Amino acid sequence: MPAELRLIYPTQARDALRSHDDYLRPRSAKAADAVLAEVEALCNLIAEFPDIGRSVPRTSLRLHVTRKYRYRVAYRATPGLVEVIDFLHPSRR
Hints:
By secondary structure, the protein is an alpha+beta fold. It has a single domain, classed as YaeB-like fold. Helices cover 37% and strands 26% of the residues. Strands 1-5-4-3-2 form a 5-stranded mixed beta sheet. The longest helix is centred in the middle third of the chain and has 20 residues, at 29-48. The model has no long low-confidence stretch (mean pLDDT 91).
């Protein structure tokens, strides 16, 4: 099994996730918690297997999608580090 890489969330990524949470939480705290749990699980999986996401052409980014809620996690993997760049959802632009 590969060694887990260090996972970091720059300000842009934290702000994006907070924005999604701010949108969902007033509608349903349970749903917001479920989305955050799924995103966190995916980020931990990415830290363990950084090549799991598809590469984005002409960039150093990779993209992987959560199964249930379809959130896209954009990230960059370098030796010893996974940097989560952004969290995106197709219905929120």
